[in-house]
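Possible regression after last week's pipeline update?

I re-ran a chain I had predicted before the update to compare outputs. Posting the input and the new output here so someone can diff against the archived version. Not blocking, just want to make sure nothing changed silently.
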Amino acid sequence: MERLVEGLRRFHGNVYPGRSEEFRTLATKGQSPKTLMISCADSRVVPELITQSEPGDLFVCRNAGNIVPSWQEANGGVSSTIEYAVVALGVTDIVICGHSDCGAMKGLMAPEALTTMPSVQKWLGHAAAAAETVKACHPHADDEETLRAMIEENVIAQLVNLRGHPSVAAAMAMGQLRLHGWVYDIESGGIRALDGNDNIFKETVPGHPLPVADFGRQPRPVREAA
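New output (post-update):
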Protein backbone atom coordinates (compact mmCIF):
# COMPACT_ATOMS: atom_id res chain seq x y z
CA MET A 1 0.00 0.00 0.00
CA GLU A 2 2.91 2.33 0.72
CA ARG A 3 3.89 2.16 -2.98
CA LEU A 4 0.40 3.28 -3.99
CA VAL A 5 0.47 6.20 -1.57
CA GLU A 6 3.88 7.24 -2.85
CA GLY A 7 2.53 6.99 -6.40
CA LEU A 8 -0.33 9.30 -5.48
CA ARG A 9 2.15 11.81 -4.11
CA ARG A 10 4.20 11.72 -7.32
CA PHE A 11 1.04 12.10 -9.42
CA HIS A 12 -0.21 15.13 -7.52
CA GLY A 13 3.23 16.68 -7.22
CA ASN A 14 4.84 15.91 -10.58
CA VAL A 15 2.28 14.74 -13.14
CA TYR A 16 -0.99 16.56 -12.50
CA PRO A 17 0.38 20.15 -12.46
CA GLY A 18 1.63 19.87 -16.04
CA ARG A 19 -1.62 18.31 -17.28
CA SER A 20 -4.18 20.15 -15.19
CA GLU A 21 -5.86 21.71 -18.25
CA GLU A 22 -6.27 18.29 -19.86
CA PHE A 23 -7.91 16.85 -16.74
CA ARG A 24 -10.07 19.95 -16.32
CA THR A 25 -11.35 19.52 -19.89
CA LEU A 26 -12.12 15.86 -19.25
CA ALA A 27 -13.94 16.78 -16.07
CA THR A 28 -16.08 19.51 -17.64
CA LYS A 29 -16.69 18.19 -21.16
CA GLY A 30 -16.94 14.48 -20.38
CA GLN A 31 -15.46 11.48 -22.15
CA SER A 32 -15.65 10.36 -25.76
CA PRO A 33 -13.59 7.17 -26.10
CA LYS A 34 -13.85 5.31 -29.39
CA THR A 35 -12.76 1.90 -28.10
CA LEU A 36 -14.04 -0.43 -25.40
CA MET A 37 -11.41 -2.92 -24.27
CA ILE A 38 -12.49 -6.00 -22.34
CA SER A 39 -9.39 -7.50 -20.78
CA CYS A 40 -8.35 -9.78 -17.97
CA ALA A 41 -8.00 -8.45 -14.43
CA ASP A 42 -4.47 -9.92 -14.30
CA SER A 43 -2.15 -7.33 -12.75
CA ARG A 44 0.39 -7.85 -15.54
CA VAL A 45 -2.06 -6.70 -18.21
CA VAL A 46 -2.46 -2.92 -18.33
CA PRO A 47 -4.56 -1.88 -21.36
CA GLU A 48 -3.55 1.78 -21.22
CA LEU A 49 0.14 0.89 -21.07
CA ILE A 50 -0.04 -1.72 -23.83
CA THR A 51 -1.84 0.65 -26.20
CA GLN A 52 -0.08 3.79 -24.94
CA SER A 53 -3.45 5.46 -24.43
CA GLU A 54 -4.11 8.71 -22.63
CA PRO A 55 -6.90 9.50 -20.14
CA GLY A 56 -10.19 9.56 -22.05
CA ASP A 57 -8.99 7.31 -24.89
CA LEU A 58 -10.12 3.89 -23.65
CA PHE A 59 -13.28 2.63 -21.97
CA VAL A 60 -12.07 -0.44 -20.05
CA CYS A 61 -13.82 -3.45 -18.55
CA ARG A 62 -11.61 -5.95 -16.69
CA ASN A 63 -12.53 -9.28 -15.17
CA ALA A 64 -11.09 -12.74 -14.57
CA GLY A 65 -10.59 -14.36 -17.97
CA ASN A 66 -11.70 -11.38 -20.14
CA ILE A 67 -15.16 -12.93 -20.21
CA VAL A 68 -18.38 -11.65 -21.79
CA PRO A 69 -21.37 -13.60 -20.46
CA SER A 70 -24.12 -14.31 -22.96
CA TRP A 71 -26.74 -11.56 -22.86
CA GLN A 72 -29.69 -12.10 -20.59
CA GLU A 73 -32.29 -9.90 -18.97
CA ALA A 74 -30.74 -10.33 -15.52
CA ASN A 75 -28.47 -7.33 -14.99
CA GLY A 76 -24.70 -7.80 -14.95
CA GLY A 77 -21.70 -5.50 -14.75
CA VAL A 78 -20.09 -6.61 -18.01
CA SER A 79 -23.37 -6.41 -19.96
CA SER A 80 -24.12 -2.96 -18.55
CA THR A 81 -20.64 -1.72 -19.43
CA ILE A 82 -20.97 -2.96 -23.01
CA GLU A 83 -24.41 -1.42 -23.43
CA TYR A 84 -23.28 1.94 -22.04
CA ALA A 85 -20.16 1.96 -24.24
CA VAL A 86 -22.13 1.22 -27.42
CA VAL A 87 -25.32 3.20 -26.81
CA ALA A 88 -24.24 6.15 -24.68
CA LEU A 89 -20.63 6.62 -25.75
CA GLY A 90 -20.93 5.39 -29.33
CA VAL A 91 -17.69 3.43 -29.40
CA THR A 92 -16.73 2.22 -32.86
CA ASP A 93 -14.50 -0.67 -31.78
CA ILE A 94 -14.58 -3.36 -29.09
CA VAL A 95 -11.46 -5.36 -28.26
CA ILE A 96 -11.51 -8.59 -26.27
CA CYS A 97 -7.94 -9.04 -25.08
CA GLY A 98 -6.68 -12.33 -23.67
CA HIS A 99 -3.10 -12.86 -22.56
CA SER A 100 -0.35 -15.42 -22.09
CA ASP A 101 -0.05 -17.39 -18.83
CA CYS A 102 -3.72 -16.71 -18.01
CA GLY A 103 -4.65 -18.09 -14.58
CA ALA A 104 -8.33 -18.30 -15.48
CA MET A 105 -7.58 -20.55 -18.44
CA LYS A 106 -5.26 -22.65 -16.29
CA GLY A 107 -8.23 -23.06 -13.96
CA LEU A 108 -10.29 -24.43 -16.83
CA MET A 109 -7.52 -26.93 -17.53
CA ALA A 110 -7.45 -28.06 -13.87
CA PRO A 111 -10.97 -27.55 -12.46
CA GLU A 112 -10.05 -29.40 -9.24
CA ALA A 113 -8.01 -26.33 -8.30
CA LEU A 114 -11.20 -24.27 -8.19
CA THR A 115 -13.08 -26.29 -5.56
CA THR A 116 -12.29 -23.69 -2.89
CA MET A 117 -13.37 -20.84 -5.21
CA PRO A 118 -16.98 -21.63 -6.17
CA SER A 119 -17.67 -18.12 -7.49
CA VAL A 120 -14.67 -18.29 -9.80
CA GLN A 121 -15.67 -21.77 -10.89
CA LYS A 122 -19.15 -20.59 -11.80
CA TRP A 123 -17.82 -17.50 -13.58
CA LEU A 124 -15.50 -19.59 -15.72
CA GLY A 125 -18.50 -21.59 -16.87
CA HIS A 126 -18.91 -18.75 -19.39
CA ALA A 127 -15.75 -20.08 -21.05
CA ALA A 128 -16.94 -23.70 -21.24
CA ALA A 129 -17.21 -23.51 -25.04
CA ALA A 130 -13.49 -22.76 -25.26
CA ALA A 131 -12.62 -25.71 -23.05
CA GLU A 132 -14.77 -28.11 -25.07
CA THR A 133 -13.37 -26.82 -28.37
CA VAL A 134 -9.79 -27.37 -27.22
CA LYS A 135 -10.64 -30.81 -25.90
CA ALA A 136 -12.16 -31.80 -29.24
CA CYS A 137 -9.63 -30.19 -31.58
CA HIS A 138 -6.38 -30.59 -29.64
CA PRO A 139 -6.71 -33.95 -27.84
CA HIS A 140 -2.97 -34.76 -27.90
CA ALA A 141 -1.54 -31.30 -27.16
CA ASP A 142 0.89 -30.88 -24.25
CA ASP A 143 0.12 -28.45 -21.42
CA GLU A 144 1.81 -25.47 -23.08
CA GLU A 145 0.02 -26.01 -26.40
CA THR A 146 -3.28 -26.60 -24.61
CA LEU A 147 -2.97 -23.37 -22.66
CA ARG A 148 -2.16 -21.37 -25.80
CA ALA A 149 -5.15 -22.92 -27.59
CA MET A 150 -7.41 -22.32 -24.57
CA ILE A 151 -6.46 -18.63 -24.44
CA GLU A 152 -7.18 -18.16 -28.15
CA GLU A 153 -10.41 -20.18 -28.16
CA ASN A 154 -11.65 -18.25 -25.16
CA VAL A 155 -11.25 -14.96 -27.03
CA ILE A 156 -13.22 -16.44 -29.92
CA ALA A 157 -15.93 -17.78 -27.58
CA GLN A 158 -16.32 -14.39 -25.90
CA LEU A 159 -16.61 -12.68 -29.29
CA VAL A 160 -19.48 -15.06 -30.07
CA ASN A 161 -21.16 -14.10 -26.80
CA LEU A 162 -20.53 -10.41 -27.49
CA ARG A 163 -22.28 -10.52 -30.86
CA GLY A 164 -25.45 -11.69 -29.09
CA HIS A 165 -25.78 -8.53 -27.00
CA PRO A 166 -28.66 -6.49 -28.47
CA SER A 167 -26.78 -3.18 -28.51
CA VAL A 168 -23.79 -4.80 -30.22
CA ALA A 169 -25.92 -6.67 -32.77
CA ALA A 170 -27.76 -3.46 -33.69
CA ALA A 171 -24.59 -1.37 -34.05
CA MET A 172 -22.93 -4.05 -36.18
CA ALA A 173 -26.00 -4.37 -38.40
CA MET A 174 -25.75 -0.63 -39.04
CA GLY A 175 -22.05 -0.90 -39.87
CA GLN A 176 -21.13 1.26 -36.88
CA LEU A 177 -19.06 -1.20 -34.86
CA ARG A 178 -16.05 -3.48 -35.38
CA LEU A 179 -14.94 -6.34 -33.13
CA HIS A 180 -11.36 -7.33 -32.39
CA GLY A 181 -9.81 -10.37 -30.70
CA TRP A 182 -6.31 -9.97 -29.29
CA VAL A 183 -3.88 -12.10 -27.29
CA TYR A 184 -1.18 -10.15 -25.48
CA ASP A 185 2.15 -11.89 -24.79
CA ILE A 186 3.43 -10.66 -21.43
CA GLU A 187 7.07 -11.60 -22.01
CA SER A 188 7.53 -10.20 -25.53
CA GLY A 189 4.95 -7.41 -25.41
CA GLY A 190 3.58 -8.63 -28.74
CA ILE A 191 -0.06 -8.89 -29.81
CA ARG A 192 -1.64 -11.66 -31.87
CA ALA A 193 -4.85 -10.45 -33.50
CA LEU A 194 -7.68 -12.59 -34.82
CA ASP A 195 -8.21 -12.34 -38.58
CA GLY A 196 -11.91 -12.89 -39.20
CA ASN A 197 -11.27 -13.97 -42.79
CA ASP A 198 -9.59 -17.23 -41.81
CA ASN A 199 -10.20 -17.31 -38.04
CA ILE A 200 -6.46 -17.42 -37.30
CA PHE A 201 -4.55 -15.33 -34.75
CA LYS A 202 -1.73 -13.50 -36.49
CA GLU A 203 1.27 -11.63 -35.13
CA THR A 204 0.84 -7.90 -35.55
CA VAL A 205 3.52 -6.12 -37.54
CA PRO A 206 4.27 -2.41 -36.98
CA GLY A 207 3.29 -0.38 -40.02
CA HIS A 208 0.90 -3.05 -41.34
CA PRO A 209 -2.89 -3.10 -41.04
CA LEU A 210 -4.16 -4.82 -37.90
CA PRO A 211 -6.27 -7.95 -38.52
CA VAL A 212 -9.92 -7.43 -37.55
CA ALA A 213 -12.20 -10.16 -36.21
CA ASP A 214 -15.48 -8.73 -37.50
CA PHE A 215 -16.12 -5.61 -39.55
CA GLY A 216 -19.88 -5.80 -39.05
CA ARG A 217 -22.27 -5.42 -41.95
CA GLN A 218 -22.77 -2.69 -44.47
CA PRO A 219 -25.47 -0.34 -43.21
CA ARG A 220 -28.92 -1.65 -44.06
CA PRO A 221 -31.27 0.66 -45.96
CA VAL A 222 -34.08 2.03 -43.83
CA ARG A 223 -37.45 1.21 -45.28
CA GLU A 224 -40.03 3.93 -45.49
CA ALA A 225 -43.29 3.27 -43.68
CA ALA A 226 -46.08 2.10 -45.99
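Follow-up from reviewer: compared with the archived run. Strands lie at 35-40, 58-63, 93-99, 178-184, 191-195, 200-203. Marking as no regression found.
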